[in-house]
Amino acid sequence: MRSGQAIFQVLREISLGILPTMSRATTATRTQRERSSVRWGRNPLEVVVYAVTVPWLHLLARAPLRFLYAVSDVVSFLLFRVLRVRRGVVLENLGGAFPEASPEEIRRIAARCYRNQCDVAAETLRMLVARPEEICERVEMRVDIARRLQEEGRSAIYVMGHNANWEWAIPATAAAIPKLTLHVVYHPLSHAGFDALLRRMRERFGAILSPMDEAPRAIVRLRRRVTAVILVADQRPPSRSGWRTPFLHRETGFLRGPERLARRLDMPVVFVEMIRLARGRYRLSAEWLCDDPASTTAGEITERFARRLERQIVAAPDDWLWLHRRWRDRRVERATRAR
Question: Shortest CA distance to 5 belongs to which of 72, 81, 83, 57?
Fold first, then answer.
């Protein structure tokens, strides 16, 4: 079981980019020399995992997608049916979000979720070597709003969730609007080597990456360019710092960062929807979330994002990332341990 969990963790860390983030203090104070010293891992096990894993990932990335999908089928079957890695978390998340669904339907959605996320891992790995044209052929673009903003010389904030293949939104948009600067705001991975690998995947297509706490300064530096600031904004916020709202039948915290950036810099906010049409085929659409952030009240933009994201998840529940502990409450856990 432990070996299966290790394999699954590597898949999540490298291709999904949802590792626990480094604290702001750690990020701010770590020098380049210190980062280099842990580039391969913070302990011998991490070094071995990284050294063994990365060459195989580069080799797999060169395989045709149909081969990667065959591997995805095998891996998803093992993870869900045999090893049952995080299966309890997924079923609990789905059960809370869809209380009216039968246990059989919940299990069917969960099985499709594992398959879809393994497909996303395979497609993300392909970004190591894929040509932009290869990805563009598989993503239907409906981004008239983004084109119009670019033509008007207006930068904007683009928010989306972990739906379908969110990673392919970067190369698809870069090819569709080549004059638009893509500025991806992200949470660094705790492993410097895998973080660099994910950065290289995205930067191959012209994206500029900034850690979340450096985003405002980076946006100011890029103010002379027409920029699309891209944030995947459905992650769990730190305790007490998020906007709380009912979401999928539970009170849920949302990151305030996108709204604060929009209101502080008076940048319009656009919702990005990535929909899976078929295996390896997607549609990316852009729609207004807020054109005048300065006139909104606190929490209004975040609330609009939560409602729009909720509709997307309900329409295609197997395409969201149910494998993380989205509703984990560390305060309750600490109180329980203290008893």
Answer: 83
SS3 label, residue 227: strand
- Tell me the one-letter amino acid at 124: T
3-state secondary structure of 154: coil
Q: Tell me the β-bridge partners of 183.
A: 208, 229
Q: How far apart are CA 126 and CA 243, in angstroms?
A: 35
User: What are the residues whose beta carbons fall under 8 Å from the beta carbon of 187, sequence distance 6 or more?
Assistant: 17, 21, 211, 212, 235
Q: Where are the alpha helices (DSSP H) in the chain?
A: 2-11, 24-29, 32-37, 44-61, 65-77, 87-97, 103-126, 132-136, 144-151, 169-176, 192-203, 215-221, 257-265, 300-315, 330-338
Q: What is the CA radius of gyration of the chain?
A: 20
Q: Could you report the per-residue pLDDT of 12-42, keeping only the tens digit for each?
A: 443 333 333 333 333 333 433 344 445 666 7
Query: Residue 204: which H helix or E strand, with range?
Result: none
DSSP per position, 19-63: PPPPPHHHHHH--HHHHHHTTT-SSHHHHHHHHHHHHHHHHHHTS
**Measured between alpha carbons, how far is 99 from 108 in angstroms, rounded to an integer?**
15
pTM for the complete prediction? Answer: 0.85
Locate tokens 């975040």: which residue? 302
Q: What is the dihedral of CA 241, 243, 245, 248, to 10 degrees?
A: -80
Q: What is the pLDDT of residues 72-81, one digit of tens each?
A: 999 999 999 9
Between helices 300-315 and 257-265, what is the axis angle to 10°? Answer: 130
Residue 192 CB: number of other CB atoms within 10 A?
22
